[in-house]
Amino acid sequence: MALVPGRDILAAARRDQYGVGAFNTNDMEITQAIVEAAEAKRSPVLIALSEGGLKYGGAELPKLVIDMAREASVPVAVHLDHGSSYASCLRAIRLGFTSVMIDKSHEEEDVNVRETARVVEAAHAVGVTVEAEIGRLGGVEEHVVVAEEDAILTKPDEAQRFMEASGADYLAVAIGTSHGANKGTGRPYIDHARIRDIASRLPHPLVMHGASGVPEDLVRRLNAAGGELADASGIHEDDVRQAVTEGIAKINTDTDLRLAFTTRVREVLRDDPTQFDPRKILGPARDEMRAVVEARMDVFGSTGRADGWTAG
Ligand code: G3H
Ligand code: 13P
Ligand code: ZN
Prior knowledge:
The chain is α/β, with parallel strands linked by helices. The protein is built from 12 helices and 8 strands.
């Protein structure tokens, strides 16, 4: 089973109407949490590394991630998250990634098409598949939450034109989500009609960035253990479930893992100030992240899908 192109996983998910998580990793423990959860839940999964993650993890991290993906008993794709350039995507492809995102969503449409098409040509030549983005999320992309501002949400006609011209395999859409732990006040607005409109024009798997749920319980525990996270809010599980029925197939989650990790580390150190064995600190954090990944897989509907799985 093991390491497969991203499109094989995501096209199967769109075909059978379930979502697959793309979980960001930055170290061994996070990667183990993701792979162990996927194997326990019998779920396909994408392991995502950002350019920041690659810088942090050095030469060893991608080797470890790809090795674990190869050994896994479920389908796994190793994905470059928010690749900023052709060179960055090519580097990931050379490292053995099976999926890359080229994110030129801040450029004019013609530049985005041209740069995406360049990456598609290089990636497809070696069996790697490509995510592109149209529209702009809030959070890390804009530094403000701009979820309800129509001008930056993905325009369905532009999405259709873009996918035909670029040849990308899956498309990240701006539909009201934003990166990070502060996605707006109250329940963030998700433009479901927009997802349905885009999906009615495109057979491609659609991608939801900024999809973390920011669970209230984790935030409460984090703050009770000395954290100071204010105004936290995430995407409601029902919005994710509905989005999956509407065409979202790839669901990006990073913040929830960061919250789980930090909450558990804070709790362990608070509860036992004499503790200084890294394994006794990072082990519980890994278990907490694994539980988060497993819960997300149930919400996405990917649990059990690895058994009898066929590429889409
Ligand atoms: O969308 C961004 C991901 O959460 C990765 O964040 O660039 O800080 O690794 P990063
Ligand atoms: P969150 O910040 O909601 O986890 O989103 C992560 C993401 O979109 C990575 O590309
Ligand atoms: Zn993202």
